[in-house]
């Protein structure tokens, strides 16, 4: 079993970085990776939902991971989400990720068809076999994948020694307790829903992987610091503030990731482009809300950090 401490803490879900024509930008990808490393995050989760993976070509996903690894060079933990909706390309991404030296790979179950647990297990084990020297993390996000990780399936997957735990993005925080109890001390469970970072940690999550961490890392790092001290009362108002900001960012016509990329441009001067269609881009009417959310983040950081 690997050193699990490297997975404990705040791990932002990395955004897809595009140029002004909508192509993957290596330069902007490296700039975002450098920015987050300098903020002091524990690691980066590359190629997941926040990375718009479902809308990217396999080669684009490889290009992004290569750029991140070239920039980070071992300075933080890297988890590469490698799932595609077919086994062959998922295995190719897994092998590629291992060749670059990532700490772990992760995978959602196949989407669209609701497969039985034994077929999902075969899919995940095939992916793991393509990266036999790399930790494997199950990504449980039933509200998007259409299938939930069961205790029985998790127990079956734990027979694979590379399977170290779960990125749990289901809404009930009790699921974190369930998977932590099943996995035991030699497993890791990540809180997924950003709005439940404090409650997820309180019930047993070892760390968090989240899509809004990158736009306001200071707030999540401060919550993590307080949680490690056992001061949940002080972490709670920061969570409330982060949740209010998330609600504001979700109120735009444009997709949440388009909103957060624009906020990073406004607050940090980092251009990350827009989002990949069919995700909706920002419209002019969004800008007052985007600017208000950016100001809210700045105010919250000044207050709590």
Q: What would your notes on this structure say?
A:
The structure is a single chain. This protein is of the alpha/beta class and 305 residues long. Helices cover 48% and strands 12% of the residues. It is built from twelve helices and eight strands. Strands 1-8-7-6-5-4-3-2 form an eight-stranded parallel sheet. It starts with 9 loop residues before the first strand and ends with a helix. The model has no long low-confidence stretch (mean pLDDT 97).
Write a concise synopsis of the structure shown:
The protein has 305 residues and is of the alpha/beta class. It has helices spanning 26-39, 58-72, 87-100, 117-130, 142-145, 151-157, 174-183, 197-202, 217-228, 232-249, 256-268, 287-304; strands at 10-12, 43-46, 77-81, 104-107, 135-140, 163-168, 188-191, 207-210. Helix 4 packs parallel to helix 6.
Keywords:
alpha/beta, 305 residues, 48% helix, 8-stranded parallel β-sheet, globular
Global shape: globular
Stretches where pLDDT is under 50 for at least 5 consecutive residues are none
How many H/I helices? 12
Main sheet strand line-up: 1-8-7-6-5-4-3-2
Question: How much beta, percentage-wise?
Answer: 5-15%
The helix fraction, in percent, is: 40-55%
Largest sheet: 8 strands, parallel
Spatial extent as radius of gyration: 18 Å
Number of strands: 8
Structural class: alpha/beta
Task: Encode the helix/strand succession as letters.
Answer: EHEHEHEHEHHEHEHEHHHH
Mean pLDDT: 97
Terminal CA distance: 35 Å
């Amino acid at each position: 079993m690997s050193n699990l401490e490297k997975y404990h803490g705040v791990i932002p879900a990395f955004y897809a970085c595009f140029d002004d024509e909508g192509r993957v930008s290596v330069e902007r990808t490296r700039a975002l990776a450098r920015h987050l490393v300098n903020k002091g995050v524990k690691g980066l989760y590359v190629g997941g939902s926040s990375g718009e993976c479902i809308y990217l070509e396999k080669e684009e996903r490889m290009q992004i991971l290569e750029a991140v690894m070239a920039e980070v060079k071992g300075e933080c933990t890297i988890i590469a989400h490698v799932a595609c909706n077919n086994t062959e390309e998922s295995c190719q991404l897994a092998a590629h990720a291992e060749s670059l030296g990532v700490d772990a790979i992760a995978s959602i179950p196949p989407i669209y068809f609701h497969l039985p647990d034994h077929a999902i297990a075969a899919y995940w084990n095939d992916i793991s076999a393509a990266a036999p020297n790399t930790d494997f993390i199950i990504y449980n996000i039933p509200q998007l994948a259409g299938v939930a990780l069961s205790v029985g399936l998790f127990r079956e997957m734990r027979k694979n020694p590379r399977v170290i735990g779960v990125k749990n993005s289901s809404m009930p925080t009790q699921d974190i307790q369930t998977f932590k109890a099943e996995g035991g001390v030699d497993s890791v469970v990540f809180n997924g829903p950003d709005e439940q970072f404090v409650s997820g940690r309180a019930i047993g999550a070892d760390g968090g992987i989240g899509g809004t961490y990158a736009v306001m890392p200071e707030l999540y790092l401060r919550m993590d610091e307080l949680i490690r001290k056992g001061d949940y009362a002080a972490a709670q108002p920061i969570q409330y503030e982060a949740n209010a900001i998330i609600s504001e960012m979700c109120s735009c016509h444009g997709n949440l990731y388009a909103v957060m990329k624009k906020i990073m441009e406004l607050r940090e001067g980092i251009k990350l482009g827009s989002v990949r269609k069919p995700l909706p881009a920002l419209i002019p009417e969004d800008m007052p809300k985007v600017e208000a959310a950016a100001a809210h983040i700045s105010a919250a950081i000044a207050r709590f950090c």
